[in-house]
């Protein structure tokens, strides 16, 4: 049957065909449509000719096919919902009222239509977006002639009960209040009827089952592209076939679909813009907002994002609007306890019922979709935003401080998890406090975060927030020497030059102060200043003994061990035996203070030192004990330390090394990352690459001893003087000085390669100045 033949069926012929499909006699059809039997016969004859049906049974089959084809499923591909289709098909096979709920634009209608088109029952699709009376809309879809309003329900019920039917009520939100009772009546009157609803909120009907539809995944669990990226690529190929996307575009596409929350509607709107924009232009425009994303045509809420939001906003009462504005002013996901502190919790739950507040897939927190949040913030005044951000910062502080106060005595996995969840909120709270010139609040937040980082393992967002606070002059002015010590201790794994500044400020406020001496000795231990470090630590130990501070004694003795163990750029070689003794003393002090985490951290350093002394069995035993502790407490940072110590002792360079490199890089532990790359340099064929990486990280950390070690090993890897070796030697002369560099490599002559040595010196000098300038710019951009 040709498409033109199907389309040539007139409305009246379609009405007759529907009744033929319901197996009504000609007389019954005439009675329902108020026409003569002869007219019915005439219409049936025309239908047989147009539809190519010789018998009434063939006409019924053609009618069913015509009805099924009438399901308005879009002709483009359906991406990323295979599991949802399977689940929905199982639900409509076993339940009689199923409602797909979810945020606007997440694909509820498309999912319902796809399932309706393949369901075995007769599909009837009623779009209620502009409906004022759902019963009348259903009757219109069925092409029923209703003489009086009192006949409407009976007429619709008879039509729906003629055979097994799947009634799809799409976009039910405008008439949701009236729909629940109607659906209950229809289900009671039509035993073979199943109703599938799409809505942002549940109908509340009896025996209703909900399918909550989330946005598409924006992160892939394997090597294949995520569903949101696949949808974007598909729609982009249709919008701009002459400019196909490539695999190299994957990072930009991933950023775009994450920015769009994985919402299919918004992804389609954005991809359509590639007709006029490049991919990078599109990504840049999306950072400015979403109001410019639209489609040509009518102002349907499925055509423009702004129309969709306006429709949503109009459905809310004043209390819900205020709650939505306040939730949008929060910097990120939130628990109900935080929501309760800023707004009416009942209104929040009502917003959740409307699919405007979404529960995060992993955990007990909630969030707003970013697209919705941008729209709401455009209608939220600065006073409300300021109130909410201050309340948020105070709430964060109220959770942070008690957790930090007990952290040194509490290594439970739940506490590690709680700290991890707080860093993003704490960073946002610190930034707000800095920008609002609440220096005391920023300081209290930052010092608590610093304690948690030290106890429960580094996290980049937490460390960076502490660094931003530590760069603020107003925070420095408000800080005590103890505050400066806590901030500096947390930053010692990365920006040592910043820690050195904090130590200088602390010493200027009192050389006889325990915290000042403690911090100065700590940073000097890492900055190749052995004599100064040992002097500061010795004075700090005397002060700690005098006040009976067992924890400070443990930390001071641990850093003495670190100082004695390090291979300094200048000065005597490491004293590993004395370092091991200092670590053992530190363990005893930490144990007396009740800090099990630092007992374990010191044991890791003992394992590493024992490995360097050749005490392999003891090193492996201590490393395994560290690993057991870290797994028990859920401390991934300490687990990486333990694995590093064991690999150092055993000489391993397998997949575990790759894992800890990723962990140390992710959390910004530059010291241990450098050690890991030195270990990786033992891999065959990987030596120079790993040494270059170790050199890069050592430069970022300001670790001159590791820079010298890396350059020396690079030079030795060439086995004879070459241009590349001479370039590395030139860099080494900048790090150590010419005489010290020559003394390190006394058997090498650079005759004939003098120009390459000078080039290496110039490049390293320029690189050092560039790093210093970059650090200055970064600090200049820090909030103050």
UniProtKB/TrEMBL annotation:
Residues 2-67 form the HTH luxR-type domain. It comes from the Bacteria. GO terms for biological process: regulation of DNA-templated transcription. GO terms for molecular function: DNA binding. Pfam families: GerE. InterPro entries: P-loop_NTPase, Sig_transdc_resp-reg_C-effctor, TPR-like_helical_dom_sf, Tscrpt_reg_LuxR_C, WH-like_DNA-bd_sf. PROSITE patterns: HTH_LUXR_2. SUPFAM superfamilies: C-terminal effector domain of the bipartite response regulators, P-loop containing nucleoside triphosphate hydrolases, TPR-like. PANTHER family: HTH-TYPE TRANSCRIPTIONAL REGULATOR RV0890C-RELATED, REGULATOR-RELATED. This is HTH luxR-type domain-containing protein.
């Amino acid at each position: 049957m040709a498409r033109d033949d199907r389309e040539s069926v007139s409305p009246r012929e379609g009405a007759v065909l529907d009744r033929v499909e319901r197996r009504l006699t000609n007389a019954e059809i005439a009675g329902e449509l108020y026409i003569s039997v002869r007219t019915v016969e005439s219409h049936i004859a025309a239908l047989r000719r147009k539809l190519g049906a010789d018998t009434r049974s063939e006409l019924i089959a053609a009618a069913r096919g015509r009805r099924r084809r009438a399901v308005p499923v879009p002709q483009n591909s359906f991406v990323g919902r295979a599991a949802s289709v399977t689940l929905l098909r199982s639900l409509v096979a076993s339940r009689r009222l199923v409602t797909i709920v979810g945020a606007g634009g997440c694909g509820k209608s498309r999912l319902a239509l796809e399932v309706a088109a393949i369901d075995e029952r007769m599909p009837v699709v009623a779009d209620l977006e502009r409906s004022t009376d759902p019963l009348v809309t259903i009757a219109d879809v069925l092409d029923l002639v209703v003489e009086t309003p009192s006949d409407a329900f009976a007429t619709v019920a008879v039509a729906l009960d003629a055979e097994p039917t799947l009634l799809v009520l799409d976009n039910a939100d405008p008439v949701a209040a009236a729909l629940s009772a109607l659906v209950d009546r229809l289900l009671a009157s039509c035993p073979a009827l199943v109703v599938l609803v799409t809505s942002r909120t549940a109908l509340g009907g009896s025996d209703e089952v909900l399918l909550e539809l989330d946005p598409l995944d924006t992160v892939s669990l394997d090597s294949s592209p995520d569903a949101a990226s696949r949808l974007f690529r598909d729609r982009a190929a249709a919008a701009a076939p002459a400019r196909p996307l490539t695999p190299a575009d994957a990072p930009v596409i991933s950023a775009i679909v994450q920015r769009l929350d994985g919402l299919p509607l918004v992804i389609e709107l954005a991809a359509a813009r590639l007709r006029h924009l490049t991919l990078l232009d599109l990504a840049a425009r999306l950072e400015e907002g979403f109001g410019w994303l639209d489609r040509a045509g009518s102002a349907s809420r499925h055509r423009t994002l702004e129309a969709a939001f306006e429709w949503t906003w109009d459905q809310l009462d004043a209390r819900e609007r205020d709650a939505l504005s306040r939730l949008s002013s929060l910097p990120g996901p939130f628990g109900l306890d935080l929501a309760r502190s800023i707004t009416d919790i009942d209104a929040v739950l009502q917003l959740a019922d409307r699919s405007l507040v979404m529960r995060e897939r992993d955990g007990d927190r909630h969030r707003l979709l970013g697209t919705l949040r941008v729209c709401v913030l455009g209608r939220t005044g600065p006073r409300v935003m300021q109130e909410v951000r201050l309340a948020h910062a105070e709430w964060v502080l109220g959770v942070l401080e008690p957790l930090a106060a007990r952290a040194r005595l509490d290594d439970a996995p739940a506490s590690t998890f709680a700290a991890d969840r707080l860093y993003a909120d704490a960073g946002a709270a610190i930034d707000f406090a800095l920008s609002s010139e609440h220096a005391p609040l920023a300081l209290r937040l930052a010092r608590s975060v610093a304690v948690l980082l030290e106890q429960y393992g580094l996290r980049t967002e937490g460390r960076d927030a502490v660094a931003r606070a530590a760069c603020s002059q107003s925070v420095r002015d408000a800080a005590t020497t103890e505050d400066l010590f806590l901030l500096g201790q947390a930053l010692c794994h990365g920006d040592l030059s910043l820690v050195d500044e904090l130590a200088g400020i602390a010493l200027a406020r009192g050389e006889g102060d325990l915290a000042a001496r403690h911090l100065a000795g700590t940073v000097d231990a890492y900055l190749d200043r052995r004599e100064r470090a040992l002097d500061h630590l010795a004075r700090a130990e005397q002060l700690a003994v005098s006040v009976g501070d067992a924890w400070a004694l443990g930390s001071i003795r641990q850093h003495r061990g670190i100082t004695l163990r390090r291979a300094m750029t200048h000065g005597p070689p490491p004293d590993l035996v004395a370092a091991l003794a200092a670590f053992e003393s530190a363990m005893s002090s930490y144990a007396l203070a009740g800090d099990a985490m630092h007992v374990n951290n010191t044991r890791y350093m003992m394992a590493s030192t024992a490995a360097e002394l050749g005490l392999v069995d003891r090193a492996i035993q201590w490393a395994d004990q560290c690993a057991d502790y870290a797994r028990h407490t859920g401390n991934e940072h300490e687990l990486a330390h333990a694995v590093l110590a064991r690999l150092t002792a055993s000489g391993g360079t397998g997949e575990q090394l790759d894992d800890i490199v990723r962990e140390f890089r992710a959390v910004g532990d530059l010291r241990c990352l450098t050690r890991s790359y030195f270990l990786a340099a033992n891999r065959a064929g990987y030596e120079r690459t790993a040494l270059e990486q170790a050199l890069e990280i050592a430069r970022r950390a300001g670790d001159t001893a590791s820079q010298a070690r890396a350059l020396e090993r690079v030079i030795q890897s060439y086995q004879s003087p070459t241009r590349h070796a001479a370039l590395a030697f030139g860099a080494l002369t900048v790090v150590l000085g010419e005489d010290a560099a020559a003394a390190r490599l006394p058997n090498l002559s650079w005759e004939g390669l003098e120009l390459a040595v000078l080039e290496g010196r110039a490049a390293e000098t320029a690189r050092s100045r560039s790093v210093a300038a970059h650090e200055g710019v970064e600090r200049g951009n820090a909030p103050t």
